[in-house]
Structures
1.
Amino acid sequence: MSQPFCPVPVQSSLQPVPGDSGLPIIGHTLGFMRDPINLMRKRYDRYGPVSWTSVFGLKMIQMLGPDANQFVMLNRGDLFSNHQGWDYFIGRFFHRGIMLLDFEEHRWHRKIMQQAFNREVLKGYLERMGPHISSGMAHWHQVPDFKVFNAVKQLTLDLATDVFMGYELGPEADAVNRAFVDTVRAGTAIVRAPVPGLRWSRGLKGRKVLEDFFRKELPAKRASQESDLFSVLCHARTEDGEQFSDDDVVNHMIFLMMAAHDTSTITLSTLFYYLAKHPQWQERLREESRALGKTCIDYSDLPALNGIGMAMKEALRLCSPVPSLPRKTVKDVEYNGYFIPSGSFINVVPYFTHYMEEYWPDPDTFDPERFSEERREDKVHPYAWVPFGGGAHKCIGLHFAEMQVKAILHQVLLKYRWSVPADYEMPVDTTSLPVPGDGLPVTLERL
């Protein structure tokens, strides 16, 4: 039975947000974690684009579809707080990362940080990446029971530490990787208290490992003039000479390192899966890469890898690395005839938007050509394809992500062919960020 989210103001012509709490105590949390697309579809069909439910101990309003994405992400009038939305989930683990800042403070931090992602800096990152990609994947065919997710995650973490920190991790790599995994997974903990052995507790320990790691390196980076992101953040200044504090640098490094390797790992794993299921596309992209005639690509080569670009966009549609984006209202909000009071948790869901048959023909089908210039199905609505978010908080590293995915997949295509059994379907674990539930085992053939 539908229940109103809250009473509307007296004499208001607006409607209360409809919805239901679901099961006692846990609400719809399990459905949200295990099958978010199906859950959102049912809610959209039952209530329309706006409804509330109970998840993770909160009454949360789901705002679904491209129109809702646009309304929330553009955030005209500063109605929604990123910080207050994300803080409940990951604030303890990614304290004051760029995604968790609001309004003028966010704009100030982003202006400084943008210096680490301009065109010339990206060129330098790509130059550093090429040889490390080659050496990082050279032994993959020798790994017994090879699983894509594990191998790619290790590679992207190694690349992130080299590009963002200027050196290889060495014996600390396993501890740092484990810390990143634990901090990410802690955000969707059902028991949100430091109970030993559970997600929340492991996340807090992971945060401590990462803080200690970056603080140890900070003095040397303040003194260096290297081109890695850590050094750039230490020295970046506004026109007025303002720069990041030590705490700012540590917080941004933890968040950016997580975002840079986790999201790329998810996108590459998705690409591996669909290119294994669709070998004709794998061969098409391989020929595109061979036509470049080089192992390590340059920045000027990126436009020539158009096929990889389309396949990447389709992978991001099919498996949005950040499946939902929470916010909290800081003012009363009117949307679509509904009243949403100040202090409400709301959520937009790119993962669901990308599967809406109202906007995407055959949404379950891997079809990179939908992003071709002739079709451009993503143009049906400016916020129908939103894997990088939008508005002032659009992912600051989106060009880095595209560059890294192209650089890695290009070399993989030249060195390996891979396949999965015809009846294999990759299970997707959506209990945190969406990842292959079985690690994605594939058969690798060295070319």
2.
Amino acid sequence: MNILSNVKLSSFWDTLRTSYWFVPMLMAVASAALWVVLYTLDLRLEDTTIRSLRWIYTGGPDGARDVLSAIAGSMITVTGVVFSITIVALTLASQQFGPFLLRNFMRDKGNQVVLGTFIATFLFCLLALRTVRGTGNIIFVPHLSVSAGVMLALLSLGVLIYFIHHVSAFIQASTIISVVSRDLEDAIDRLFPEQLGHGISEYAEPAAPEWEIPVRFTTESSPVAAHGYGYIKAIDTDTLLGIAGERDIVIRLMKRPGDFTGAHDVIATVWPGEAVDDDLGAAINESILLGNQRTATQDVEFVVNQIAEVAVRALSPGINDPFTAVICIDHLGQGLRRMAGRSIPSPFRYDGDGTLRVIAYPSTFADVAATAFDQIRYYGRSNVVVTRRLLETISAVAPHLRRQEDRKALLRQAEMIERGSREGIVEEEDRKEIRRIYRETLAALTY
């Protein structure tokens, strides 16, 4: 199975687990199966056996109807009211933290199980209610089913208490940022799995074999246009490598995961240009998975953007919450620490004979650092607390750096932060403090 097939399966699974119907549907099916089992036992057990069990409901058909009707009605009412109020609260919270809050809420297993419990209890009681008979000469009370319905109602009460606590904790800034921060760590571990060593060579500049690109690549290559439009979710470079090897060509990708491509935009160039035909264009397009939104499948900057968005919204005049921005900076710093110790994949891909076949530029540490700091640096340059924490975070990341270009990237960020503070911070004493921290940051980066 190729990379793109795995990505499609992963995307389908992500769609299922982030949907608000999948887990509740499974729990509803399980409740129907439970009713079938208990109803079968109710038909086979004698009344004397059932009455000997003290915890079993032993009332008549009218009482059974009342109990089941009360539970079913209360469950559907609680479900409607609770989730309506919750969605309103989440909508208001998403204005501060960003629209991804709603997506994280929907994919949270606890929330899905709560909804599933309410729906399963309602469905079970509804199915049990239709089996109660108390007219004419036919009297049948599903004692086990009624008892199970009462137990499910008690369970639903406990789940309701859990849900209120869970949502109250979920919409707190620290919890939201921690959830996205874990997604960032997972994305880094998945996309940059190789750890850097601890030898002297890790400090050397990485080789950049631009000379291996054919000299006439620019003048003799031909473009390949996109057949569709959307955000690039994933690229199957292994398939592209096979295509390039079969046709004896070099494919240079002009887009990377996370970029938006419009219809007929150039997504790749091929050398030699005369090798481009409709079949090759279709094969290259099939190796690139497009979607209507960015995902973290092969796009680590997407997750970084989510944390940065929370910080930028917190720094807006309407909210003015620099402490939430500081929390975001702390977690972004942790992500940069983790990525600083990882090996960045080479953009140059070779076949088995060592011939260059595919050029696909990945996200680098510098790209992630710019995504993490650029917007926060701009919108927080007049805030002393935010400016100070940005410089302190760079100093904290510095000891973990192993590549010279990574140091240059953070040095550039530190210079822009200090330069912006001169324009944004009014108080001279505050500017002096920022300059002092800036000098400490420079010392940490040049160590």
3.
Amino acid sequence: MDIVQAKAIPLRRIFTVLGLHPTPTLNGLDLYPSPFNPEQQSMLVVNPTANTWVNPVTNEEGDGVSLVCRYLDSQGLRCSAADALRWLRNMIGNEHRKIILPPSIPDYQEADSLFTVKEESYLYDPLLMDYLEQQRCLPFDFARTYFKQVTVLNTANGKSFIALGAQNEDGGFAIRNPLHKAHVGKRAITFIRGRKHKPANVHVFRDMFDYLSILLLRNGRRFDGDSIILNSYDCLQDMTAYISNYGYRHLHSWMSGCQIGSVVTKLLYEFSLAEHLSHIDHRDCNKGFYDLNARLTAMVL
């Protein structure tokens, strides 16, 4: 991808990758939440015909490349035009390395298509709180930061139910309750930035329960490195764009002890080898248990 091809990428596609969605206006322009200053709730005005953006507060303006440069800078990352091109190649150009999923990893997309989110809110339902604390041994005050409460409609039978929702990078949810384990919207990973900028380490977890369990086992201490929550093993392909060529040196995998967990660990090892990363397998941390959450539960109960 060269600079000309990069500038031709529709801004709408870049904003979608950033998880931002437009508010159309009557004059054909779109308003997007700024990816630079989300805490200030400022907006960018996008002209989809000219494929340009402008910040009416600061008078900054530009194309897709300048948008990505500005975004990378706001994240404390290298932000040259070359860095923007690399980001666009990884996130949109699909030139990152592929992981071929074996047939043993099921495809749940058809089943997931039955579900749609009716409502999302902060977590308050007593049944979900009890599920977190009694069945998953995750304190409510600790876990509520990472989950939303979602009301989900099953379009096949017209019935609704509530669930914990871990939001992913494409605006969908991995939903969990005692009876349901599924996705609503696009199946994608959840990315959690570490305590350090430009870290050497990236940690890969199967689901949010395992991630929160290891934090508790570490006395609540977050990782210096970034963390990727797969939300489902078949999201391995989505993971690669967040790791390829991003300057990580070590990939830590925290998979379950089952057969599929072993298969995924091998795939992550092969991916690390191809990306010139050292691979650290942490399955010993849940040795004797199915996964990290099972280990935590056994320690608490």
